[in-house]
Amino acid sequence: MKKVILFVLLQQYADWEAAYISSAIAMLGQGQYDIKTVSLSKDCVQSIGGFRVVPDYDIASVPKDYEALILIGGMTWRNEDARQVEALVKDCYKKGKVLGGICDASGFLGTTGILNEVLHTGNDLNDMKQWAGSAYTGEAGYISKQAVRDRNVITANGTAPLEFAKEILLALNAAGEDKITEWYNFHKLGVYTAAMPKM
């Protein structure tokens, strides 16, 4: 039985933030994972770049058994409709499953109160404080870093899709740490710069 990885995609989602993670899970995970998409409804969701996805699930039909919940950033996390995702996020955290949020989706996690209990990052601390208001009291745990993993919670800013992907892969144990690091270095540093394994 394959382990399900849920990607939450809202309208105008950041397609590049999802692509590295999903492709790496498929390539390194040796067929043990099944990628599924979730949105507020089953209507087509369009990315910032114009890619259209028909979600596998809406919020009401998400399966109870899944391995990770990954919130992809984009332009509509601040809309009131996005609050529908909060219950799913809190359930994921309570069950100790892998939970990730990048870019504005990490800011959204700040509005749920979850980031008050873990080390984390985001696009900007002051923006998170202003957006989340009294729900966010986790300033002491904010780290100005591309991506942060604390227990099973992974956060990243919007310029860190590769770092975000790496931390999620490590949290999932999708492959050996050396394989994940090799994958990351290859994509981050390029074919001519990354140290490749000797044949």
List the helices and strands and how they pair.
Blueprint (H helix, E strand, L loop, with lengths): L2 E6 L6 H14 L4 E7 L5 E2 L5 E2 L3 E2 L9 E4 L14 H9 L3 E5 L1 H8 L13 H8 L14 E4 L2 E4 L4 H12 L4 H13 L10
Parallel strand pairs: 1-2, 1-6, 2-5, 6-7, 7-9
Antiparallel strand pairs: 3-4, 8-9
Helix pairs in contact: 1-5, 3-4, 5-6
Describe what this molecule looks like in 3D.
The chain is an alpha/beta fold and 199 residues long. The protein has 6 helices and 9 strands, in the order E-H-E-E-E-E-E-H-E-H-H-E-E-H-H. The chain has helices at residues 15-28, 86-94, 104-111, 125-132, 161-172, 177-189, and strands spanning 3-8, 33-39, 45-46, 52-53, 57-58, 68-71, 98-102, 147-150, 153-156. The strands form 2 sheets. The chain has a 7-stranded mixed β-sheet with strand order 5-2-1-6-7-9-8, sandwiched between helices. Strand 3 and strand 4 form a beta hairpin. Helix 1 (15-28) packs parallel to helix 5 and helix 3 (104-111) crosses helix 4. The chain is globular, with a radius of gyration of 16 Å. The model has no long low-confidence stretch (mean pLDDT 96).
